[in-house]
Design a protein that fits this description.
elongated, mainly alpha, two-stranded antiparallel sheet, 3% strand, 315 residues
Length: 315
């Protein structure tokens, strides 16, 4: 450089940026040191995640079940104040080590890191509580059955028939949800829907013999299209009514599937009345003349009751 005795501002800034750190002219602030430590920890965590082995989907679902069973205690251990709170991989490891039960079937540290890798798709080194909950739900949901349209229609028919029986709903599912303090704008999750279906009145009272848990899970999986774990009440009603209508439009009567309702084949003509629950047994064979006499006697008794009631009312 020329020894002119003066430099431009640009030249001065370039010199300071290039040589300032070597001569300790500029010192990092506390904030910058903290950020550097955080970045170093994040890089270490990412390296650990990359080194974690791949886990089979079935084993990943076992990890999700274990986390779901201990979810509340797990988040308490991480000091997460709300679903929007964020936790790091280190916090997750410490919480799992202190909360999850120990045993041969318990998740290993490598399996927990594999699960975290699914939750932290952006490799940010931290996730929100809500994001972790959603990952647990989605991993479990993948193991639930996928039902074809005929099965969905028959389940909708079964649910609608139970709603008609207990609430005379007539397709208006708000009559059912009202008893559970659910407005049209509210949401339901799978456990809430299961309670409505399984409980006695005001629930629908459908036991697993009529509608198996597997079919109910498959029905929920078809409803939860955005995989959020919550479905608006109006969408539940719309889904049931739409599939019920599809079954109603079929010309053939509904054929019940195993685990969805129950139906017994009709007895032969000669077997009807045998072994039934009626304590009176089958009705006796009566001729036409005796039936006509019984009808006349009933008409006379009805006329006498009517005339007696009219006289009492007039008096």
């Amino acid at each position: 450089a020329k020894a002119s005795g003066e430099v431009s501002i640009q030249e001065f800034m370039l010199f300071m940026r290039t040589n300032g750190s070597q001569h300790s002219i500029t010192k990092p602030t506390q904030y910058s040191r903290t950020r550097r430590k955080m970045e170093a920890r994040r890089q270490e965590a990412l390296a650990e995640l990359d080194a974690a082995p791949a886990v089979e989907p079935s084993r990943l679902q076992d990890v999700a079940r274990c986390l779901a069973a201990n979810m509340s205690r797990l988040f308490e251990a991480t000091s997460a104040a709300s679903p929007r709170s964020r936790i790091t991989l280190l916090d997750f490891d410490i919480a799992c080590d202190s909360v999850l039960p120990r045993g041969p079937q318990s998740p290993s540290p490598e399996e927990l890191k594999a699960f975290w890798r699914v939750a932290d798709q952006e490799c940010a080194g931290e996730v929100s509580v809500r994001q972790l909950q959603k990952t647990i739900y989605n991993v479990l949901l993948e193991a639930w059955p996928v039902l074809e349209e005929p099965a969905l229609a028959r389940i909708a028919h079964l649910l609608d028939r139970a709603a008609q029986k207990w609430h005379v709903a007539g397709g208006n599912w708000n009559k059912v949800f009202w008893h559970f303090d659910l407005a049209v704008s509210d949401f339901v999750d799978f456990e809430s829907l299961k309670a409505i279906v399984r409980q006695g009145f005001p629930g629908l009272g459908l036991r697993s013999k009529s509608l198996s848990d597997a079919h109910l899970r498959g029905f929920w999986r078809a409803m939860d299209t955005d995989r959020s774990g919550r479905v608006p009440v109006r969408e539940v009603a719309r889904f049931i009514c739409a599939h019920r209508q599809e079954l109603a439009e079929c010309r053939q009567p509904p054929r019940l599937l195993p685990g969805i309702g129950s139906a017994s084949p009709p007895l032969p003509e000669e077997e009807r009345g045998k072994g039934s629950d009626d304590p009176c047994g089958p009705p006796p064979a009566v001729g036409g003349e005796r039936l006509e006499a019984a009808a006349l006697a009933l008409d006379a008794a009805l006329a006498a009751c009517s005339s007696g009631g009219s006289g009492g009312a007039a008096g």
